[in-house]
Amino acid sequence: MLKMRLATAAALAALSSSINGLAQTGEDPLTKPIIGSRTAEWLSPAPPQKIFGNSYLVGFGGLSVALIDTGAGLILIDGALPQAAPAILDNVRRLGFRPRDIKYILSTEPHFDHAGGIAALARDTGATVVASPRGAEGLLAGRHAADDPQHGYGGSWPAVAKVQTIRGNQSLRLGNMTVTALATPGHTMGSMSWRWQSCEQKLCRTIIFAASLNPVSTDDFRYTAPTARPIVTGFRKSYATMSETRCDILISAHPDNAGPGRYNARPGACRAYAERSRKALDQRMKSERRQGQDSPIRVRR
Do 81 and 117 contact (CB within 8 A), yes or no? Predict the structure, then answer.
């Protein structure tokens, strides 16, 4: 799940300097807004919504944030943009839960549109932040990894003070819930998706919160370059993971990537999610080969 070009180079420079200087003005540096061309769309208001059983959505029209009630505390998945943190906690309250009962915050990817609010959420709830090892590096640094296809966009977001790491196929247990980490590299090499099962009236469904799979990059990045081979290999592994895992309900980091609505409960949703990315990556690489050193096609975040 970070997928937004900031409006101008000037906005990027202003963002970096403003975050560093906020403490002097008395503003909260962890919720200082990051504003870009799609911010209003991503943070369009949406009411908290029950998905199934003990699983809920507490995010926005263009950015998913999930909540799981384990019976012994809450698990939050993703944190949206920095300025979104108060609204996320308000949505948690509107469902009748207490933010201080959030015990874990799981991260899909080290990008500002999904991880920007995690630092504030962790501070305000006392929750433990959990990410992949590579994802943790990005959260602790508050910036893109050097091998991130979007590294050239620059910019930063509030760094997380402490992160617990988890690897693919490992599980986190709390109360009556087990959440399994699914490594889905490509969009970033630290991207992690999450799988759990919710039950209601003796019917259980497997829910996947999928990290972004879009092959998005700056214009000068080339997926056909030798240095990008690990990223392409990561994408291919992620396609297999998403296609093979049980998936009754799909939540994608950006809802529109999964189809209409805030989540997708149609059969084959995860396979279709992977296939759309596979086609986009194949098209991108074919375009790069045709165009040589010309600018490759752009994929909308």
Answer: yes
Angle between helices 118-125 and 85-94 (to 10 degrees): 50
**Paired strand residues for 171:** 180
Render pLDDT for 199-216 as a digit per residue (tens, 0 to 9). Answer: 999 999 999 999 999 999
- Comparing CA positions, the residue from 186, 171, 290, 271 lying closest to residue 236 is 186
Q: Dump pLDDT digits (tens) for 177-193.
A: 999 999 999 999 999 99
Report CA-CA distances (Å) from 224 to 34, 189, 231: 32, 16, 10
Alpha carbon 137 to its chain centroid, in Å, reads: 15
Question: Of 120, 135, 123, whose CA–CA distance to 168 is shortest?
Answer: 135
DSSP state of 299: -
Q: What is the C-alpha to C-alpha distance for residues 104 and 180, in angstroms, rounded to an integer?
A: 13
Q: What are the two backbone dihedrals, phi and then psi, of residue 59, each rounded to the nearest 5 degrees?
A: -100, -135
Q: Are 115 and 157 in contact (CB under 8 A)?
A: yes
Distance CA 52, CA 250 (A): 12
Decide if 301 contacts 214 (C-beta within 8 A).
Answer: yes
Whether pLDDT at 228 is above 60: yes
Among 192, 142, 146, 185, CA closest to 170: 192
Which conformational region is residue 203 in: left (phi greater than 0), alpha (psi within -120 to 50 degrees), or beta? beta
Give the integer Cα–Cα distance in Å for 5 and 25.
27
